[in-house]
């Protein structure tokens, strides 16, 4: 049943997936992966408090499940509970040091807290693990822009765009950084590509 729930979740049928997970958990209440997957489906629906409860259940069963720690941090971040999210991401990284997603998510939480230098460090770690992560490159660029390091930010956005040329977030953010440098022709070009 768990695989059926996963298939439904991948198809965007989150409520049906949750129903399948719940039925499976009635039979196997100690399946940490099913609790984690239920949390993912709840998170996909924006039901973050319920998702956090599911991740906690997963972690009660298997406290060193790095995916559940990362996913819990993700939901906490969406609720604006950034310090708690950081703790969850740190726990995921402690368990699995080369966990790209946790480093990237940690960087985003640090950015929301205004801790931009630390955010850049976290994004660099994510990039070192997975060099073709357009998300991590764009996030690094955004943090560099917050530090008013616009030239470096543009380089980061260009790296994101080299990986994914149609990546809207990087195009938009690059345009904004170019405008702050007074490079208006390049800004217009970036926004034209964005549009």
Molecular structure report:
The protein has 195 residues and is mainly α. Helix content is 79%, strand content 0%. It contains twelve helices and no strands.
Oligomer: single chain
Number of helices: 12
User: Beta fraction of the residues?
Assistant: under 5%
Helix content: over 70%
Shape: elongated
Q: What is the total tally of β strands?
A: 0
Q: Between the first and last Cα atoms, what is the distance in angstroms?
A: 43 Å
Summarize the structure.
The protein has 195 residues and is mostly helical. Helices cover 79% and strands 0% of the residues.
In terms of topology, how is this protein built?
Elements: H1 2-10, H2 14-27, H3 32-44, H4 48-61, H5 66-78, H6 82-95, H7 100-112, H8 116-129, H9 134-146, H10 150-163, H11 168-180, H12 184-194
Attribute tags:
195 residues; 12 helices
